[in-house]
Design a protein that fits this description.
Length: 132
């Protein structure tokens, strides 16, 4: 880990803010500490220490936290939001790269299909939330 990052993470206010962001993102996903801990291969007690700002996750666990919580390490550590979240699914990336080579009309058709699928998903999520 680079020395600057180590120095930054020694600051109690940075650790506390990191912990708050982890907790907020976990709660947005409606996960318990135990569920998130399992996903990052940590104990619930260790995750609790991350969320409370007592401990800082090692870099490999910080990267895993970012991936699992669908955010960036930059956001976790500094609160900076990337305007476009990264895509981790390599199959999706490969397909989007292929679609880039389509002619304009074909690309528009794919975008319309994706928009329809997203709308369907959002509608189903809304209905499910209203029922439950």
């Amino acid at each position: 880990m680079n020395t600057t990052l180590v120095n930054i993470m020694q600051d109690a206010s940075v650790r506390k803010a990191l912990g708050q962001r982890i907790k907020q993102l976990r709660k947005q996903k409606a996960w318990t500490q135990k569920e998130l801990a399992n996903r990052i291969e940590a104990s619930p007690a260790q995750l609790n220490k991350y969320e409370s700002g007592q401990n800082t996750p090692p870099i490999d666990r910080l990267i895993l936290l970012a991936e699992v919580l669908d955010t960036s390490v930059d956001h976790l550590v500094g609160g900076h939001h990337n305007a476009t979240p990264p895509i981790y699914n390599t199959r999706l990336i490969q397909r989007f790269q292929t679609i880039e080579a389509f002619d304009r009309d074909e690309r528009e058709l794919v975008i319309q299909l994706l928009d329809a699928m997203i709308a369907k998903h959002n509608m189903a999520s809304t209905v499910k939330a209203m029922e439950g």
